[in-house]
Amino acid sequence: MKQINKIYTPIVFLCFAVAACGPSQETKELQLKAKKIIGALPSKMPGSEKDTPELVSLGKKLYFEKKLSQNNTQSCNSCHNIEGKGAGVDNLPTSPGAFGKNGDRNSPTVLNAGYHFAQFWDGRAADLKAQAKGPILNPVEMAMPSEAEVLKRLNEDSEYPALFAKAFPNEKTAVTYDNLAEAIASFERTLTTPSRFDDFVNGDHTALAQDEQDGLYTFISSGCTSCHSGNALGGNSFRKLGQVNPYDTTDFGRFNVTKKAEDKHFFKVPSLRNVSLTAPYFHDGKVATLEDAVKKMAYHQLGQNLSDADTNKIVKFLGTLSDKSRTN
């Protein structure tokens, strides 16, 4: 026993000594670089400072409300599932609407969407409120025939008139389509997802394992941050899909909104937060795995043929961007 203690004591001392040394110089430099290029996710979304508990509560109820679809089968959550460990998507290539027909684009995650500079793949909605108005009246998605029909259903409900009145106490007519969208947006502004990466950027050098730090270094050095920068790692610019090497798609993207020839095949750069949870990938949902998505992005956008080793490093890092409550 004495001999064991003699061996054990130096090992314990060595462990404490290593811990006391703190991060390596490489880790410190990586933290600083990540903070400068990406940064930590703010604790609150823009505009949330004006949201009241009553408004958020109403928005949450509306987010899950199937009465907002013509045949009472679809809610916002149907395509953007946030229940349990749901990452704000349905994990399908494209989503079926109220009457079974699928849309033509992959449903992007609603998590952290309020940090983006525009909404939808083509940026046709300026903010969360404008976005919330679209799917309800879209004939493929929720298929309601008109705003008037939506309001009729809400006014005939036993709860909604009073809930709208509480959420919009200064308005004579509280149940309006504009207020419906504002309420849903207020709830969506609560859907922030802090990650281990944020802990790392905020100074916790132990938040990322060494292989994850290697992945972050490779992510930056490979040029991924030329598009995926800012605290959402994307969501702040439009880029041509097939910037260096063409990508096979018939979707004109941003051009459908602007009608400018130079906008053909431009799409909003998606946020990479929670990306390991939101397969399949790209606007068409045709890329099944994150490894394949990383390789294709490197080839089509950067003109690089990433090795399997570097691809796996980047994928390892991307896993650190997931909401901590959805990965435990």
Task: Write up what this structure looks like.
Its main location: periplasm. It is found in: Periplasm. The protein has 328 residues and is mainly alpha-helical. It has 2 domains: 24-41 and 194-327, Cytochrome Bc1 Complex, Chain D, domain 2 (Orthogonal Bundle); 48-188, Cytochrome Bc1 Complex, Chain D, domain 2. It is 42% helix and 2% strand. The protein is built from 14 helices and 2 strands, in the order ααααααααααβαβααα. It has helices at 2-21, 25-37, 53-63, 76-79, 128-137, 147-156, 160-167, 177-188, 196-201, 210-221, 255-258, 290-302, 308-318, 324-327; strands spanning 238-240, 266-268. The chain has a two-stranded antiparallel ribbon with strand order 1-2. α3 (53-63) packs antiparallel against α7 and α12 crosses α13 (308-318). The longest helix is centred in the first third of the chain and has 20 residues, at 2-21. It is globular, with a radius of gyration of 23 Å. The relative contact order is 0.15. Residues 4-19 have low confidence and may be disordered.
